[in-house]
Amino acid sequence: MTRMKHYKSAFDGQKAVILCNGPSLNGVDFESLDGVFCFGLNKIDLLFERTSFRPSCVVAVNDLVIKQNAGFYQSTDLPVFLDGFAARRHVDFAPNHIHLCSYEQGFSAQPEIYVSQGGTVTFVALQLAYYMGFSEVALVGCDHYFGDTGTPHKELRGGERDINHFDARYFANQAWHAPDLAMSEASYGLALQAFQQNGRQLLNASTQTRLETLPLCSLDAFLQ
Q1: What is the distance between the alpha carbons of residues 188 and 194, in angstroms, rounded to a whole number?
Q2: Structural domain includes residue 43
Q3: Average pLDDT in the 208-217 region?
């Protein structure tokens, strides 16, 4: 709670970008994000060998993701927001780690107490962005489409290449949980309502997206 309170309203009136992990993330001009606060999600580090760009922080709450990517969370100097229960199982605690308490109770404006996962790590990042005071937030790489899915939340096994994320290695030959797109859409709706009621903007700046819950814009227009 002490570490979270350090972030409360720390970025009032500023813009933030949330880097979702769909294939369209590969089309983002990361140089344009220089000086912009960016939330990286889950296995965003797979991008690092291709660019010098680094997000401002990383958010991960899924148990399988944290287990598979524990080495990165353990070694990075970036601030890392992790589901506390999963993190205690797979990652040694570090000074740059902030453990979150997950509790499915709608959009949380008090993530130092709890966050709702809402079917997608993006929803957690949105709660953090709201808490930090960002007045304008845009998603990129939020394709909201999966070529191979199963029963929501069911554990699946990835094939030789992951076609659903920005890097073919993302869940290649690894366990992952089938997405719950309906739950995610409902969560995005809750986030949009929270932002708008507080006079803030929440937009979808993804170049390829099937998410219709959030207003669309281009990343260039958002940054300008």
Answers
A1: 10
A2: yes
A3: 96
Q: What is the CATH number of the domain that holds 76?
A: 3.90.1480.10
Contact 116, 108 (CB under 8 A): yes
Tell me the pairing of strands 175-177 and 155-157. Answer: antiparallel
Q: What would the mean pLDDT of 86-95 be, rounded to a whole number?
A: 94
- pLDDT tier at 62 (50, 70, 90 boundaries)? very high
pLDDT at 1: 84
Who contacts 110 (Cβ-Cβ below 8 Å, separation ≥6)? 131
CB neighbours of residue 168 within 10 Å: 16
Q: Against a cut of 0.90, is the pTM above it?
A: yes
Say yes or no to pLDDT of 64 above 90: yes
DSSP state string for 76-117: --S-EEEEHHHHHHHS---TTEEEE-B--SS--S-TTT-B--
Q: Mean pLDDT of all residues in the chain? A: 96
For residue 59, tell me if it sits in a domain: yes
Q: Does residue 164 form part of some domain?
A: no
Quickly list DSSP for 26-53. GG--GGGGTTSEEEEETTGGGGGGG-S-
- Domain range for residue 25? 2-149+181-223
The number of folded domains in the chain is 1
